[in-house]
Write a structure and sequence with these properties.
Blueprint: H1 2-6, H2 13-40, H3 45-84
Length: 90
């Protein structure tokens, strides 16, 4: 495990990205709730609610795109490992 980590075969970035996602989501939610009291008094409350929902969805999609790249790398590594250890057919 340590050898794979030192040779960059094991990546820590996906784990850090998941933590960053949840921390950022909590901060975004707290920020929007603190601004919600100002949104209630305005005439455009539905626009603000849509911005809130759209921001949540956009934030999630952004992180999904980043995570897909790391999953592709992991899947390619598994395919390579399977091919290298597969018995040869004659």
């Amino acid at each position: 495990m340590l050898r794979d980590f030192l040779r960059f075969r094991y990546l820590i970035t996906p784990c850090l990205l998941e933590i960053l996602f949840w921390v950022g989501l909590i901060i975004y939610f707290i920020n929007m709730m603190s601004n919600f009291k100002f949104m209630i008094s305005e005439k455009h409350i539905w626009q603000d609610i849509l911005k809130f929902g759209g921001g949540l969805i956009g934030y999630r999609v952004l992180f999904e795109f980043i995570m897909v790249i790391f999953r592709i790398q992991k899947d390619l590594a598994e395919i390579k490992h399977t091919i290298q250890h597969a018995p040869e057919k004659q």
